[in-house]
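Note to self: keep these together.
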Amino acid sequence: MVRGILFVTGFGISVVGGISTVAYLNFFATGLSLMEFFFFLITRPECYLLPIGMILVAVSIYLSGNPNQSFRDKE
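Structure:
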């Protein structure tokens, strides 16, 4: 249950961060260089949501839910 909630929360957070990051790609049309764009992304707190959400999803996938092995895990 905790793994599912952690996965859905991480997925939602990463979607919000990804949409914000993609929306800021429009600044390339205004003449920003690649380095200026990355420096701009570092200053925006909503762009930190993408890696945070991805970490939560990864933790929920690799988190062991059952300490006892089932008969299929004993191979």
